Amino acid sequence: MNIRIDGVEYPATKDRNLLETCLGLGLNLPYFCWHPAMGSVGACRQCAVLQYPDEEAEQAGRGKLVMACMTPVSDGARFSLETAQARRFRQGIIESLMINHPHDCPVCAEGGECHLQDMTVMVGHRDRRYRGRKRTFRNQYLGPLVHHEMNRCITCYRCTRFYRDYAGGTDLAAQGCHDHIFFGRHEDGVLESEFAGNLVEVCPTGVFTDKHLVHDYTRKWDLQSAPSVCAGCAVGCNTLPGERYGRLKRVHNRFNAEINGYFLCDRGRFGATWVNDERRLDYPGLRGEDGRYNAIDHHGALQRIVSSVERGAVAAVGSPRASVEANFLLRLLAGPARFCPGFSAVEQPLVGEALALLRASRATVPDIATMETADAILVLGEDVSNTAPRIALALRQGVRNRAYAMAAGLKLQDWQDAAIRNLAQDQRCPLFIAATAATRLDPVAARSLRLATPEIARLGLRVADALAGDNSNDYSHDNSHDNPDDHSVHREAAAIADGLRDAKRLLVVSGTGSGDIAVMQAAARVAEAFRDTGREAMLSLVVPEANSLGQALLCEGNGSPDLDALAASAEAGEIDTLLVLENDLYRRAATDQVDRLLANCQRVIALDQLDNPTTSASHLAVPAASVIESEGTLVSLEGRAQRCFPVFPPHAERHPAWVWLLATLKELGREAVSDWHHFDDVTRGCAAAIPALAGIAAAAPDHRFRNHGVRVPRQPPRYSGRTAMRANVSVHEPKQPEDEESPLAFSMEGLNRDQPAALLSYVWAPGWNSNQGLHRFQADVGGPLKGGPAGIRLLRANGGATPLPRHATAAFAVEADEVLLVPRYRIFGSEALSAISPGIRELVRPACIELCAADAERLGLADGDGVQVGDNAAALPLRIDDAMAPGCAGYTAGYRETAGLAPNTRQRLRRVAHFSPPGPTVIGSDRGGRHG
Amino acid sequence: MNALDRALTHPLTRNVTPERRPFDLAAYEAGGGYGGLHTAIGKLTPAECLQIVKDSNLRGRGGAGFPTGLKWSFVPMEDGGPGHKYLICNADEMEPGTFKDRLLLECDPHQLIEGMILAAYTIGADVAYVFIRAEYLLAERLLREAIRDCYGKGYLGRNILGSGYNLDMHVHSSAGRYICGEETALISSLEGKRANPRAKPPFPQVSGLWGRPTIVNNVETLCNVPHIIERGAQWFNDLGLTEDAGTKMYGVSGRVKNPGCWELPIGTPIREILEGCAGGMEDGYAFRGLLPGGGSTDFLVAEHLDLAMDYGTIGKAGSRMGTGTMIVLDDRTCPVAFVQNLVAFFARESCGFCTPCREGLPWSAQLLAELEAGRGQAGDLDTLAMHVDFIGTPGNTHCALAPGAMEPLASGLKYFREDFQRHIDGRACPYCEREAAA
Q: What is the ipTM of this complex?
């Protein structure tokens, strides 16, 4: 199919609107309200072009203005972008938008990467004719993450469309009317959506900006950035962190069509600035007799590590948040039998089982984009909004496939966003959720069940049986006929199976978050049973951390000791030196248990970024570079190996862990590493040694790769002040640091174009200074990058060779004075490092125990009481929350205070006399002054 | 004139008495009311009803003049499984200078209800809404009473007249926005959303209220339906004086001797309405022009007074018949202030969705205010003309509000350009000066 634009024939496809088509052809057509992930509504009228009905009209120049974003293309259609009529109209739109815009670019955080600036320059508007007053607004306090400056607003409606329509938020809306439309909350307050940070990138100008960046500001052109991967959870969203003066300034989304697309969650966007924390270790510290640490140099530290390793029995604790390479080297150092992957004792079998199920299942293991194609979804026991938030956003899109199906019936195209939403209203694909508490996805769910963990597993098995048409199994084998709840599980399972009757692509989501292997197994069974009916099934299992799955692959099948086993070895005096890699063990096990473990080892060497209780208990604390400052491979929950690159060289002696460990191994004279000099050698060594990780070397081009003969720059061409940055220290400009480990350069020299997607270090194209220029890097507007996919899928299913386990679960019942302890994760708090990032820190609430009112009454407890769980030392405040399933006590997971609690155990809660609750977290420290 | 004759020539206002006493159900039925209902429900198929309405050449009386039967024919009639279809009566009469629907609502609510039942029956709707202007408190009360009486009588509810046809009817009082008169904005508002118009296609006939097929008709349009069904398409066609069919509610406001609203055969010449019904200009005032169909239509001037008030004729003269209710401009009222007042109204009533309307109307209003205040500058008329083109060209904006809003300005600049120029040259409004001098 061809269309004519300004007399030139171009190829076009019919499912694309004219704006997408033009952008895809590299034509400069300005726009505001259209967004590649959100489609068209026709609000801003910026993308007007002239459409000619026929050739004769084209020659006479007689056409009609149409909005490109609202115009389907058809074969032979004729348009003009360049005709004066269209250009004048587009100028008129910008001129109208500029009536009220404050022109405060010099003090605006968006300046230099502002889509409004780009479009203004693009249309050539310059002179102001409007003589009236500008309208003004009062700005709001929207929480510690997002800054609000309403006067800059051009009323494109993208923010509400993203926040409400795309992400399901309710507390941000268009208010007022005519030329006085206000986008904000009903009153000042923290934005509720866990995706609010995307407003920063969705807003085409500076209304919503990154509050951290606003307070620690650098222009985009002065930021150094490199492709990175979010370490906030196991989803593996691609990020572009930006640095200046050795400080991380902000994190932007790095488009990956298969994973995060255009959007990140707030943990990912705002949760990496902990790398600027004052508690970062700068130099190796050797603990003296007095318990204080003395800084020693790199060489001294290395010698101490080597001599410690040489002197006796070594054991090591790796980390599910550290790179595959660092863990691999540590395992090489300690030996597989003495390498603990660093999970908690509870988590280790859970992650192992997740991997085993992903391998055993014949269902597809989907990436995020594939999840969005599901036409039915079942979530078993995993609160994805808090454990893998980007998946929650994908599920919100998945349920909209009903709307697209309805739209197809009216011949509407997928980009006709408003029309499709008006047509489908609240009709959605079925989403069924079974969880121990309410979840944020409940409002879009067809059915949301609050069940105790074993009941969730039973529900899953029942659904699987119902799909298989098999009603003979009785998983409760004891009191099902007496237990009214059991009938309800039967009934609900039948209803869910019935609800899946018309589905063609089922997505089952579960994971380690329920703390119960049986729940994941039930999820796998549902997917399998659905697949057996000849339809497509997808199985996604959420694991806890950025490299949990990589760690499981590294240790697969060789019986690595868990933390309990390690503690037993230490107790038996079998460990002289314990090496701990990027892991605060006090978040993995009860305090007294970790105290004993560390005390039972003669020497503890902790390699970590931050001063934490584990480093504080070590004999030698070694500073490590963070994920932002080092290269590494992380394996996401779908088994995708992805490479991160250092955004900037680490300070002082903060070397990447792999550097410390490789140097140690070399000092020890280990044969295996004698030829290894580069990061790539470690990666390849790991790929060769561990068959399951064989693919990791292909996750990104190696350090010898050159893009058209040159490196890929980390700094944009307009990076300024290179000679002035250090002028207060020395007038001599230091040489730019060399990057010997990657094809990227710590400079502006090189070519940021045509590179493989894994090497996209910033988004910038001529005339397109904002992130909207991304389409110039995409093979297809809104689609995959020209550089191909980033990362590589490692998981190879074994095609159902191992049968899925099938365990019976006993019916759930608690004694009168007991509760079932269930984990509750929080997007802000359950992940240790993001929780101390400025901004997020203000949103972290103290750990607590949650009970429904009926259970609290049964146990004689009241809101605000302090309770002790079993023999866990810490007393926790009790919160009454009727979102909890009956019989279940939720504990805030991932916190030090709850590290000793075992999920899905029956416990007694003891009320603590004279309990003083932890002080309230300060929220809104920068509230107060009227901004603007 | 006896009652039957009046019903034949003034079908819409046959029950409107000089004291404007509202007709209750008994009185309405006594005068032959619900005759259309008895004629059609259970006796004619929806397809037969549709054909009659099509043949009648009834055109929408809300302003756009779209053929009603054609509009109804877009509603999918094949059994689409479960789900509803909706009929909405647009009673959000907010067009400046327009008060015709109010008369019909306050004097004869049952006529509207009967028309709605017939329309809903024809398109297969099972729920109907009256979306009524918030200020029409009396009309709202009367409608609610009338609907209640109809449920009691079996004209609404389950199994109407034993036909098996069901219809529920609700009254929704608007929150007072001009844009709600735009049918898709009305639908958004009825759904509880911001009253923003929707892009078409899809048209409400296939995806309207709650995403279901929906017909939105004006009060006057629907009031014609019972008569058409009862007396037939030919009778209705014969009522019109020109190519359009039926009667029309015409109104006149401004400095005329007898402002008001009259039902006349469609196609009655403007002069007859202005001079015959409205009694001509008040003493001491001379005619300068008029907006033929409400505040969002182009000026007509003296040379147009003998034109027939119908859709085609007024359209050819460069304006629109709109709602058929004229606003008269006299020689002692400043045309700039007149237009400024209207543009400021439309700027205020913009929903704020699309840029040209949201930003361009306040800009135009601001410029006109500057002119009126004697602060106009050379080039301002060019800027205004730019806006007429920029905002006023249909398709440039998301809906028809802005093009309508620009019509008085566009035609004002054409017919009264000297007045505009004098505001700039004299640095003052000549009409204000004259008033001050007097």
A: 0.95
